[in-house]
Amino acid sequence: MTTIALFLFGLAPLLEPVYGASCSESLTCVGTKYTLATCDIATKNCSCYTGYVPIHSGCGRQLQKPVINSSAPYSNEILPGKEAVLTCSSNDGATLFEWTKDGMIEKGSSASRYTIKADSIKESASFRCKAKASNDDFDSPQSEPLSMNLINGE
User: Fold this and answer.
1) Which UniProt keywords apply (predicted)?
2) Which residues pair with 131 in a beta bridge?
3) Is the pLDDT of residue 27 over 90?
4) Three-class DSSP category at 3
5) Bridge partners of residue 98, in order along the sequence
6) Would you say the pTM of this structure is higher than 0.70?
7) How far apart are CA 46 and CA 50, in angstroms?
8) Residue 102 three-state SS
9) Would the pLDDT of 142 be above 80?
10) Which residues lie below 8 Å from residue 11, measured CB to CB, with a gap of 6+?
11) 14 three-state secondary structure
12) Beta strand pairing status for 146-150 and 77-78?
């Protein structure tokens, strides 16, 4: 009976709990295995347990910051006409990655390995990667930058 009265007066939507990660002053979060029942009014996200982050469907495990390694003989130097392979390593078992070169996303590069051709670098370039969840809800923090330097053969 109370639900019908609330619905008739337009108050029912204000009392419905939120199962996702978004909330507001008039909505409450539902506590789940990873989501706390509290709403962070500043961010309008349901609070998550430590090690988890808000995603559109609740809270997901925070991916750890990946590390970049280089196959170049001197780790960050590349000779003209040669190439080097960078590997983005994640302890989380991520299979999708995003690469950036000098702060710009490298489109079409979603594997853990990224090949750099020397002719794509003027003098030096800074590379970063981040691990991505398969459902595209959340990403890891970006790796520390790895600067690749073109060695002048003269």
Assistant:
1) Signal
2) 97
3) no
4) helix
5) 130
6) no
7) 13
8) coil
9) yes
10) none
11) helix
12) parallel
